[in-house]
Write a structure and sequence with these properties.
The complex is a heterodimer of chains A (about 250) and B (about 500).
Chain A lengths: L2 E3 L3 H6 L1 H13 L4 E2 L9 H6 L2 H14 L5 E4 L2 H20 L5 H9 L3 E3 H8 L12 E4 L3 H6 L5 H7 L5 E3 L14 H4 L1 H17 L4 E4 L2 H13 L5 E4 H6 L7
Parallel strand pairs in A: 1-2, 1-3, 3-4, 5-6, 5-7, 7-8
Helix pairs in contact in A: 4-5, 4-6, 5-6, 11-12
Chain B lengths: L10 H9 L2 H23 L4 H17 L1 H14 L3 E5 L2 H15 L3 E4 L3 H6 L1 H7 L3 E4 L2 H8 L16 H15 L11 H18 L2 E4 L3 E3 L4 E6 L3 H7 L3 E7 L3 E2 L2 H15 L7 E5 L10 E7 L3 H5 L15 H5 L1 H6 L10 H11 L5 H5 L9 H5 L6 H14 L1 E5 L2 E5 L6 H14 L2 H13 L13 H4 L12 H8 L8
Parallel strand pairs in B: 1-10, 2-3, 2-4, 4-7, 5-8, 7-10
Antiparallel strand pairs in B: 5-6, 6-9, 11-12
Helix pairs in contact in B: 3-12, 9-10, 16-19
Classes of the chains: A alpha/beta (about 250), B alpha/beta (about 500).
């Protein structure tokens, strides 16, 4: 089984710890993960802002970089959703515009192999107890793309519940968007900030020491808001909790 | 508010103002959360909801594919039943037809059933321009009309008002429109409803002309259907001598059997009721009961152009239940007026720029009035993939492309005002398509990380006003992987 890590541009640049946590976790579970250097960005910021043509080279790059791998694992629900939901649309539109089937074929080739981390763990490896230890009170925010586009269901929660020492507390209004939304955070800054502030208040109200998601982009928004509000709650990616052991805390 | 959505500012500007209005936010949050919870419970009662939802989408899709056939059938059936059918290409033509029809009755006053189509075309203002006064009889529409306000929700037009505000509006304004509010009116819902009932009863009993929309038009019999909660609609539909119904061409359903699907989907999705209290159906004018003359105005107003778009046409499935508004976190904070249209919320964000085009600033901003969280798609009873259409329309705004305008196929140019963004997106794509350049950028950011300010200038300010920026790490993942051989060597 050849497994590739799609670390995502946000994690690569701003949150390398998350990528390192995935590598450490998968290695602990006996999976050797490869990192194709040709990878860059899934193209979500361009596509979701309306620049579909600017996305096409990135779709091609993604398909070429991950050719030959059985699984493409990514610690990002929204980037996995971008590939699975939108790559086929981009391919189909290019074909409809008379530019051939090549992009559609490239998209179709990566869609079934691209998995968010919790999907890979639960569905492919068949584990929910990954042997992690994380002695903290944690609240979980199911990100919109993970929840609704990928249909992650309770996979991340089951993984968290199996972590030794972890006290999982309910987040009120958990399924409501945090307000990040990519360029939405800048284009509609007032509404985004209002949504973020409500989410941060809910997180703060749980009494948890950490808020966990499967996406660092949502965490960047929630964590940035918490920080400005003077909160001590830490944003932490699911991978970093699952990588933590009694010997090594992430 | 001055009774028109024309010339309203772009969504981000209007939304920022609304977001800062504490009372508005509180009213909206209370109302949407209440109905959201009730709707979820009402939907959960039906074990076959997913199948109903799929049927609702499929029937609408099939009807839209053969819309010309069903509309012709409906026209023949309405005519055979003694009604008169008028075709209106746009808002101006529809308003002209209705104004003429009212004038021909010699009346100067009409009573109205709550109708999105007449809001869409601005009928009340057009009638007022012709010296005809239109009285809204739906409780919420009455509140909006008396308050010289605009509707802000598809189902609950006065959702932005609380009881205290409604009491004040009734007390101050009812006298200008007819029977004044009782002395010492309180803000108790029962008292407010009684004041409205007394005020409206006088209108029902004197009006000779009623104007309505319709939720459905059954092609096989030419039957119109209005679904409502209060019963004032039924008063307007049965008491006046002349009834004029303005109906969007997408409202047609082929048969009575199809209605069965929607009469389950609509009440549960909109008011969280198993069945709505009043479902009125009429087929042509009656001889002994109801109006003696019946006119149906079939309204296009951008619908044919919308139908020509293979992705965007799914917006025409909409049955105006407003479940998407009640679940939308953006609507909840921005309020309905920020959308600058009779159709607010997620459905408005995809319907309005298709019906009106994306030429104006507010219309071009609507596809961006969403974080793409997908909650609207999840609750939509006819499975409109609103996020998909939003992104599709964003593409139309910044990239241009083929569209149908006024029945003609045209190639739209990209909207103005996106030059800097377009350049940034191109530059980002250029760098992201070259991992070496990406890496150089990451290294530069890492080297200068101690210099990064806490608050950014320019477009970055929108982020840093309320959110801290993440600290740039000393080393990117890519560099770490290379330096440590994938974490196997020293220094990992």
């Amino acid at each position: 089984m050849r497994v590739a890590l799609f670390v995502t541009c946000v994690n690569d640049t701003l949150y390398p710890r998350t990528g390192q946590a995935v590598v450490s976790l998968l290695r602990r579970l006996g999976v050797e993960v490869e990192f194709p250097q040709a990878q860059s960005c899934c193209g979500q910021p361009q596509f979701n802002t309306g620049y579909r043509w600017e996305t096409e080279p990135l779709v091609r790059r993604f398909a070429a970089a991950f050719e030959g791998f059985d699984h493409i694992v990514t610690p990002s629900g929204s980037c996995a959703a971008m590939v699975r939901d939108n790559y086929p649309r981009i391919g189909a539109k290019a074909a409809a515009e008379g530019r051939g089937e090549e992009l559609a074929r490239a998209a179709d080739a990566v869609v079934p192999r691209t998995l968010e981390l919790s999907e890979f763990l639960v569905d492919v490896l068949g584990v929910t107890d990954v042997g992690a230890y994380y002695p903290h009170r944690v609240t979980y925010h199911p990100t919109c793309h993970g929840l609704r586009m990928l249909g992650l269901g309770d996979r991340p929660r089951r993984l968290l519940e199996a972590v030794a020492g972890l006290d999982l507390v309910e987040l009120p209004g958990a399924e409501e968007c945090c307000g990040f939304g990519g360029t939405f955070a800048v284009k509609n800054a007032a509404v985004s900030a209002a949504m973020g502030a409500d989410k941060a208040r809910h997180v703060e109200g749980t009494g948890a020491g950490a808020v966990c998601t499967v996406d660092n982009s949502c965490l960047m928004h929630i964590g940035g808001t918490l920080s400005r509000l003077g909160s001590r709650v830490r944003p932490v990616h699911l991978a970093e909790i699952l990588a933590s052991t009694r010997e090594e805390q992430w | 508010m001055s009774g028109t959505y024309l010339g309203m500012p772009a969504f981000p500007v209007a939304a920022a103002t609304a977001t800062a209005d504490g009372r508005l936010r509180a009213n909206l949050t209370h109302a949407t959360r209440t109905i959201r919870g009730k709707r979820a419970a009402a939907v959960a009662e039906l074990p076959d909801w997913a199948a109903l939802r799929a049927a609702g989408a499929a029937v609408k899709d099939r009807t839209l594919r053969h819309l010309d056939t069903y509309l012709t059938q409906a026209e023949e059936a309405v005519t055979a039943a003694g009604g008169t059918v008028h075709w209106a290409a746009d808002a101006r033509e529809a308003n002209r037809i209705v104004t003429r029809l009212v004038r021909e009755t010699g009346e100067r006053e009409v009573v109205k059933v709550k109708s999105m189509a007449t809001q869409e075309i601005g009928l009340n203002a057009a009638l007022a321009g012709a010296g005809i006064r239109a009285y809204e009889t739906d409780l919420a529409e009455l509140i909006v009309q008396l308050g010289d306000d605009l509707p802000s929700h598809i189902l609950v037009p006065a959702i932005h008002r609380n009881r205290g505000e409604i009491r004040d509006i009734f007390a101050e304004r009812m006298a200008d429109w007819g029977r004044p509010a009782p002395e010492g009116l309180s803000d108790r819902p029962a008292e407010l409803a009684e004041a409205a009932r007394l005020h409206l009863r006088e209108k029902f009993l004197t009006a000779k002309v009623g104007i309505s929309g319709a939720n459905f038009l059954v092609a096989e019999t030419g039957t119109l259907v209005v679904v409502e909660s209060e019963g004032n609609g039924r008063m307007c539909l049965t008491l006046p001598e002349t009834l004029i119904s303005v109906v969007g061409i997408e409202k047609v359903v082929p048969t009575w059997r199809d209605l069965e699907v929607y009469l389950q989907l609509l009440p549960r999705s909109s008011t969280a009721e198993r069945m709505n209290p009043y479902t009125s159906m009429w087929t042509g004018p009656g001889e002994s009961d109801g109006p003696r003359a019946f006119h149906l105005v079939l309204l296009d107003n951008g619908r044919t152009d919308t139908l020509a778009d293979t992705v965007g046409r799914q917006a025409l499935r909409c049955i105006r239940c407003s479940a998407c508004l009640n679940v939308c976190p953006v609507y909840e904070r921005a309020g309905g007026h920020a959308y600058g249209s009779a159709y607010p919320g997620p459905i408005g964000a995809i319907l309005t720029p298709q019906l009106r085009g994306t030429a104006s600033e507010v219309d071009a901003s609507l596809p961006y009035a969403s974080s793409l969280c997908g909650a609207c798609y999840e609750v939509c009873p006819v499975a409109i993939d609103i996020p998909e259409v939003l992104v599709h329309l964003r593409e139309r705004v910044v990239q241009g492309g083929p569209a149908s305008v006024g029945g003609q196929r045209v190639r739209l140019k990209p909207a103005r005002g996106h030059a800097a963004e377009r350049a940034a997106m191109r530059a980002a794509r250029w760098a992201l398509d070259r991992p070496g350049v990406l890496r150089a950028g990451q290294r530069l950011a890492a080297r200068t990380r101690r210099l990064h300010p806490d608050r950014l200038p320019g477009p970055g300010r929108a982020w840093t006003d309320t959110r801290a920026v993440p600290e740039v790490p000393a080393e990117s993942f890519r560099d770490w992987w290379q330096r440590t051989g994938g974490g196997r060597e020293a220094g990992a």
